[in-house]
C-alpha cells in the first residue's frame, strides 16, 4: 500500500494500536474516536465501565475496534501490569496519548489539603511517569512509535490559585521532554506535548463557570489537530504543539 493509496489516505493508522487515557469524555473521548476513524485499534483507558462501553459503540460505528481498560490511574500496580498485558496481546504499541487529568483545588497553596495535592499529583504526573515505564518498551517495538502528552498553558504561568494544577502540568512537560531526549538517538519513538488552550470541556467549565462554552473550540476540533502528531511521518520530537496558535513551540517558552 503506497502513500497515494486512497485507503491509506483516509485511514492512515490502519493496523496500528493506540492507547488513550481519560478516554471516556471530553478531549480523551474525541481523540479516541478520531484515532479510530483513522483506522487505529484504540486501547481506551478510563475509570467507568459504562462510559467505556458507550465509547466502544461509537468506535465500532467509526469502523474500528477497541480494547476497554477500566483503570483508575491512581492504581500504580495496575499501570505497571498494563504494559505486560498489552505485549502479550498485541506485541507492540504504536501510539500513546496521555490525556487523563484532574483540575485539583482552586485555592491558595497554603490552603490545599495534602490529600487534594496527592490526588492531583498521582493522576496528572505520577501516573504518566508510570505509563512511561510500562509502555516505553512497547512503543520502541513499533516501526514509528508516537507519544503525545496533554499539558496546559497553566504550566508556564504563576497564576494565583492554580498552583496544584500548574505544578503538575509543568512536571508533565519536563517528563515528556526528558523522555524525548532519552530516546532521540536510540529509537524511532517521537514524544511531544500539546497545549489545548481553552476547550469546551467539563474541566474548563468548572474552572471558568461564567464563560460561554459555545465561544470555545470543541474537543473534536482539538482531536483533529492532534491526529498529525500520531502519524508515522511526524518528524518533530521534544516539542509542544500549541493548539491556539496551531504551531509547534520551541523550549524554553515565555511565561
From TrEMBL:
The keyword Oxidoreductase applies. PROSITE patterns: ADH_SHORT (PS00061). It comes from the Bacteria. Keywords: Oxidoreductase. The keyword Glycosyltransferase does not apply. One of its GO terms (molecular function) is oxidoreductase activity. GO terms for cellular component: membrane. Belongs to the short-chain dehydrogenases/reductases (SDR) family. This is SDR family NAD(P)-dependent oxidoreductase. It comes from Ancylobacter pratisalsi.
Amino acid at each position: 500500500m503506497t502513500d497515494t493509496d486512497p485507503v491509506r489516505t483516509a485511514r492512515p493508522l490502519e493496523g496500528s494500536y493506540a492507547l488513550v487515557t481519560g478516554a471516556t469524555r471530553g478531549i480523551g473521548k474525541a481523540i479516541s474516536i478520531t484515532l479510530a476513524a483513522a483506522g487505529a485499534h484504540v486501547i481506551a483507558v478510563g475509570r467507568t465501565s459504562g462510559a467505556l462501553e458507550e465509547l466502544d459503540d461509537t468506535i465500532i460505528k467509526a469502523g474500528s475496534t477497541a480494547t476497554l481498560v477500566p483503570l483508575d490511574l491512581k492504581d500504580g500496580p495496575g499501570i505497571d501490569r498494563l504494559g505486560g498485558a498489552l505485549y502479550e496481546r498485541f506485541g507492540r504499541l504504536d501510539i500513546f496519548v496521555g490525556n487523563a487529568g484532574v483540575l485539583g483545588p482552586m485555592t491558595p497553596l497554603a490552603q490545599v489539603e495534602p490529600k487534594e495535592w496527592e490526588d492531583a499529583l498521582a493522576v496528572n504526573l505520577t501516573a504518566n511517569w508510570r505509563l512511561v515505564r510500562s509502555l516505553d518498551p512497547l512503543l520502541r517495538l513499533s516501526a514509528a512509535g508516537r507519544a503525545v502528552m496533554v499539558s496546559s498553558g497553566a504550566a508556564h504561568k504563576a497564576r494565583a490559585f492554580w498552583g496544584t494544577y500548574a505544578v503538575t502540568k509543568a512536571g508533565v512537560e519536563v517528563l515528556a521532554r526528558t523522555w524525548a531526549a532519552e530516546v532521540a538517538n536510540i529509537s524511532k519513538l517521537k514524544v511531544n506535548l500539546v497545549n489545548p488552550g481553552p476547550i469546551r470541556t467539563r474541566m474548563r467549565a468548572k474552572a471558568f463557570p461564567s464563560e460561554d462554552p459555545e465561544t470555545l473550540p470543541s474537543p473534536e476540533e482539538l482531536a483533529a489537530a492532534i491526529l498529525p502528531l500520531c502519524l508515522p511521518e511526524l518528524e518533530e520530537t521534544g516539542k509542544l504543539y500549541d493548539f491556539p496558535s496551531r504551531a509547534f513551540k520551541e523550549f524554553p517558552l515565555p511565561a
